[in-house]
């Protein structure tokens, strides 16, 4: 089985996740840690739990989700993976980071690209990749069937969806992708979004005002 640890970092209140298995092998998703105390919080948990970080992954590459990429990659000497469509989004961050109050932002070089047609492996555990563009052009969602964990990034939130007014965003594309990919998951799937509290697929199918049963498309 897989376990999940949540951290909330930076002024955007971004959720960073560590997913780990029974052998203590771990993946860091969307490290938003910028300040030293945030980085200490992340590393302290990894050290206390004796985790072995195997890779760094971004669900997508907006600034609030990538602030700690270089730190995590350097600290644990691990490969950094994204969807290929997110590379321009990632590369653009350095051009505006200072304007958002992050003058110390460091770029991290991508090592591998993720293909949504393949599964991700963490030890013996298989993680499915869902392609859910609309908020960002190469946004991926990660689903582990056995534990019913879904790391959703900025696609589906409790009672909301990701914004679509940023470069590469498209509102209808996001609605369609959520309906096709995420709402095909079991209702008791636990959705861990990029911001805010956990929700479930069943709850959002019923009550989400953008994509639920009561939504007007």
From TrEMBL:
SMART domains: Lactamase_B (SM00849). Gene3D superfamilies: Ribonuclease Z/Hydroxyacylglutathione hydrolase-like (3.60.15.10). Its cofactor is Zn(2+). Its EC number is 3.1.2.6. Keywords: Hydrolase, Metal-binding, Zinc. CDD domains: metallo-hydrolase-like_MBL-fold. One of its GO terms (molecular function) is metal ion binding. It holds the Pfam family Lactamase_B. PANTHER family: HYDROXYACYLGLUTATHIONE HYDROLASE GLOC. This is Hydroxyacylglutathione hydrolase.
């Amino acid at each position: 089985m897989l376990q999940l640890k949540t951290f909330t970092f930076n002024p955007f209140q971004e959720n960073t996740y560590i997913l780990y298995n029974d052998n203590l092998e771990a993946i860091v998703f969307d490290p938003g840690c910028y300040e030293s105390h945030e980085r200490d919080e992340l590393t302290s948990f990894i050290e206390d739990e004796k985790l072995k970080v195997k890779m760094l992954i971004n669900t997508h590459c907006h600034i609030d989700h990538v602030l700690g990429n270089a730190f995590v990659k350097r600290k644990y000497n691990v490969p950094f993976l994204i969807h290929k469509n997110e590379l321009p989004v990632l590369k653009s961050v350095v051009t505006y980071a200072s304007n958002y109050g992050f003058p110390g932002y460091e770029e991290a070089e991508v090592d591998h690209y993720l293909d949504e047609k393949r599964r991700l492996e963490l030890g013996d555990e298989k993680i499915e990749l869902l392609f859910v563009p609309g908020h960002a052009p190469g946004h991926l969602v990660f689903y582990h069937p056995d534990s019913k964990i879904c790391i959703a990034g900025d696609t589906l939130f409790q009672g909301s969806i990701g914004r679509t007014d940023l470069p590469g965003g498209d509102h209808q594309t996001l609605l369609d992708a959520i309906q096709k990919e995420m709402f095909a998951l079991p209702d008791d799937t636990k959705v861990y979004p990029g911001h805010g509290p956990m929700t479930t697929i069943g709850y959002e199918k019923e009550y989400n005002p953008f994509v639920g049963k009561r939504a007007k498309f």
